[in-house]
Amino acid sequence: MRRVYVCGIGATPIGEHWELSLRDLMVLAAKKALEDSTLTKRDIEAVYIGNMSSGILQGQEHLGSLFATWFGIPGVSAQKCEAACASGGVAFHQAFLAVASGMYDVVVAMGVEKMSDGNTYDVTSALIMADDQEYVAFTGSSFVGLNALIYRRYMEKFNVKHEDIAMFAVHDHKYAVNNPLAQYRKAVTLETVLNSPIVADPLRLFECAPIGDGAAAVILCSEEVAKKYKSDRLVEVIASSVATDILSLHNRKDIVTLNATKLAMNKALKMSKIDLKDIDIVELHDAFTILGVIHLEDMGFAEKGKGWMLVKDGEIEKDGKIPTNLMGGLKARGHPVGATGIYEVIDVVTQLRGEGGRNQVDDAEIGLAQNVGGVGGTVTINLFRRL
Amino acid sequence: MRRVYVCGIGATPIGEHWELSLRDLMVLAAKKALEDSTLTKRDIEAVYIGNMSSGILQGQEHLGSLFATWFGIPGVSAQKCEAACASGGVAFHQAFLAVASGMYDVVVAMGVEKMSDGNTYDVTSALIMADDQEYVAFTGSSFVGLNALIYRRYMEKFNVKHEDIAMFAVHDHKYAVNNPLAQYRKAVTLETVLNSPIVADPLRLFECAPIGDGAAAVILCSEEVAKKYKSDRLVEVIASSVATDILSLHNRKDIVTLNATKLAMNKALKMSKIDLKDIDIVELHDAFTILGVIHLEDMGFAEKGKGWMLVKDGEIEKDGKIPTNLMGGLKARGHPVGATGIYEVIDVVTQLRGEGGRNQVDDAEIGLAQNVGGVGGTVTINLFRRL
Fold it and tell me: Which of A45, A61, A124 to mutate to test the interface with B (most CBs of B within 10 A)?
């Protein structure tokens, strides 16, 4: 396999973009990423677009040709990639393979979702399509409800207090303050989180990622193209893995472990030949506070049932043992579903480049981005190393 | 790039499968392909599923994990690929790159669409999402209407008679008779085609691909895996290309040429290092009769404006100069949108293996499968050589 590098990143702020359409968001993100890369449109050979619900929410499919048209690059290879909330992650994986294979030298991995103006379906109905329509969605289950089950089971099984898990939201908001792309740039207290309205007990409103619009793009390139850059503009992709699990919770033996995270993690560590302890920063997919805790465990940073201690002890802070979600995470940076996987990559690359501003970690060399689809039906892990 | 081979093919018959769900179709196709390959489930490392409208029609996304679950292979890398009617083609392209890259040795490229039981939207509304929602679908245009515009323009520009184009439907039906997977296994006369109801003038009902359900799967493998096979079970993928065009007709200079076909064709010929004249059989994407004619021209088999002569002169017959759509094409084999690209690959591989039965071409060595999304917004070309 050829080596693959990230040479450009760009994204729109996440929020309610009533004035921008789906195509506008894609074009803006790609434009920023291309400018960041200093490459030109003519260099782009292929585009992979992560998106979950454009059909349902905008009545629009065929985003590959749509984007190529509006970005002024018709002719390129382009397609949409979907794996629910992990759509961005699988688009990145495909873009990675496209360069690694030797077929393309410059590829755009993009993600986009516009959730604030739905079409026929509301967003909750669109999102539950990530789970089994016939056995789960049909019963009226929502994603918040499914994650509340996980949350409840976790608290009972490991005798953990609500506030120790809810702290993850406080953490995310703290760091989002300094991220210009974040949807909610304000700190919140644990009290605010715990006193916010119940969405599905025990999940409070401030423990759930918001609905938002956004697009993010990353330019991947081969070693040949990478040679023209100074090393401070380049980050190498040292592993990219995707794993699936049984789609729905009711068929799994254990609902407080997402097995796909473990599998994807093992693949990624093997591929990159690094150890867990070599990882300096993590961006994980905490659509709900409880998931942040569970992911830390499933990735191996804590024993099962003890992930919350890392949060409580400050170990996921900027100066902690395993700095995590330093740009605001899904709760506060935001979670425009199909775009989230690419935002996570951008957050990691930003840190590895030393461009994290007030949130910058000292001397981060290796970073991890985890993206999750459904209740862990798909998990992608991408690992990056600064040059 | 590593060499990539097709070592297994399998598909459901195309039709109205009221007794089968989307997941059933996928599982049945994959089971057949796996049996054909003699590999086992445990060998599968990644799955790419072409599908356009499962969100709209079944309320189901996240097909990667859904399939992995129901096929009993959770853990594998899996995702859905979408480029409208070219979804199968782009899924194949990704599966090809996944093996070519060196990351995976055994990969399933699959396509599925279940169109006979829609959810909220009807099929016509779902399909127009392949074009621009804001500038085309919004006006009430349908895909039949857009292709009727192309048809009318072609007839006027090149002074071609309706019956000379409509002949393509007669051709497709003739060959579908001997294809056990075909939706309509009966021959039709030119008179029947021309006297069938007008859908969008000049397009008659019998000039339009039908709506149907189906799933098709292909197993791709690396050279290392291929070594265990006798050569009569193997077909090599000698090129795989994807190209886009401006999404909508109203922005194109010329609507009787699909530029993406030309681009994808050039890429594929370059990649495979073969000449156009080396191609022995063609499966092309004739969702409407007129497209069959236009594709023959854009691929280079006829001058612009003269593709219909190949049909009229019998040159696309089994014993003609360029045998085309020998398993029934989109009109009679059927067109379950996201699956069509994979059915086309299967039809080519079947011929190259010499398993075409009554439709078998003598001594075919190289075959081409073309898959088109929207009105040519995306085109994929895959080239195959028997060993």
Answer: A61
- By residue range, what is the domain housing residue A96? 4-121+211-233
- Residues A172 and A225 grouped into a single domain: no
The residues facing B368 across adjacent strands are B282, B383
Put simply, the answer to whether B94 touches A103 (Cβ < 8 Å) is no
Shared domain check, A226 and A327: no
Domain of A69, CATH number, reads 3.40.47.10
- Domain match, B148 and B289 both: yes
Tell me which of B26, B82, B271 to substitute to probe the interface with A (most A C-beta atoms closer than 10 Å).
Answer: B82
Q: Are residues B106 and B158 in the same domain?
A: no
Confidence (pTM): 0.98
* Contact between chains at A59 and B137 (C-beta distance less than 8 A): yes
Residue A238: which H helix or E strand, with range? strand A235-244
Report the chain B residue with the minimal C-alpha distance to residue A2: B101
Tokens of A335: 């979670």
- Does B215 lie in the same domain as B100? yes
Does B83 sit within 8 Å of A80, measured CB to CB?
A: yes
pLDDT, tens digit, 9 for 90 and up, residues B202-258 = 999 999 999 999 999 999 999 999 999 988 889 999 999 999 999 999 999 999 999
Taking only the tens place, the pLDDT of each residue in A257-305 is 999 999 999 999 999 999 999 999 999 999 999 999 999 999 999 999 9
Same domain, B76 and B141: no
Enumerate residues 6+ apart whose C-beta is below 8 A from A316: A171, A282, A296, A310, A322, A323, A324, A325
Secondary structure class of A305 (helix, strand, coil): coil
Catalytic machinery residues of B: 85, 335
The answer to whether the CB atoms of B65 and A52 lie below 8 A apart is no
Give the separation between CA B66 and CA A56, rounded to whole angstroms: 19
